[in-house]
């Protein structure tokens, strides 16, 4: 039995088995019973196990939804849906049932229960995660205004925002991540099909990260500016991680226990301008060395940032407007969030500049004590903001996970 998968060696996912059956199906139709023998031989000739990337499986069911503290995947899709005009609470519940059933199957490496297209037929689970959330507008649309969390209040306006309302907010939100792009795309299409006439896509964004195994050893991700990103994220092993990221069991409202709040921002990077800065100037703007992610106050990437450190020349090591200083919990009364983002590239703008940047996703137990105070500080004095444009935004309540046989959001919709 494989320690990673809990499955016997030689196990074939249903996707791979369907691929074998598809390859031999025509012969089976012509040769009758001989087709079964051909298919059996083809199965025996398959490799004993999937490659390491395809073999990864993240359980769908559990206390928390997957895709929050799950390690970053190589490919991702974010999508918001708006309910149809005649879709009520009952219709929304039926949709979440369908979505949950589909997500549970796909994350286990099985075909979509309804109208599977075969796009991911040859792949394993590939660490697929599917995460569901509710936007503020969902509650009024479904007659659940009395269950709207206070923490889901509108985000404040920030002076640096250039938001496109058509690509912001939404009644329902879906986050998809996988280490294989076809597996991620297959999940996105399956959920869109399941929405049918209940909900329509409001906006959709696609992103990527470095593929696991692309570096000699595990490393923090790099964003499109080339900077190491996510070093100061809270770690699951830390004793206060759960309190920072997830709503407590006795939290309010009760249906959000074990859930989290996701702030989603599409942040375009002015890469042509950034790339013209010298490496030394880039380091000063961030407050870390681009080469290895170490803070300019000294040490390695994981060395705590020393905001009071001075250089031999008497200058402060990390500038007053350096990103790591302005964003640090010490500069924001301890405000913390788990950043779990994807890079994106959507071609080129009319001026020839790349339409590229970060699909920023921040997870926290309460955005009023996480994202909002930090972004207010960044909005006022972050040197990096000169090279960024916040072009879309959303805040979503992401309930806890569900047990087999239940569906995500059931306590909200049926409680």
Automatic annotation (TrEMBL):
Belongs to the DyP-type peroxidase family. InterPro entries: Dimeric_a/b-barrel, Dyp_perox_C, Dyp_perox_N, Dyp_peroxidase, EfeB/EfeN, TAT_signal. Keywords: Heme, Iron, Lyase, Metal-binding, Oxidoreductase, Peroxidase, Signal. The keyword Signal applies. It comes from Streptomyces coryli. Residues 65-209 form the Dyp-type peroxidase N-terminal domain. One of its GO terms (cellular component) is cell envelope. Its main location: other. GO terms for biological process: iron import into cell. It is found in: Cell envelope. This is Deferrochelatase. Residues 222-402 form the Dyp-type peroxidase C-terminal domain. Coiled coil: none annotated.
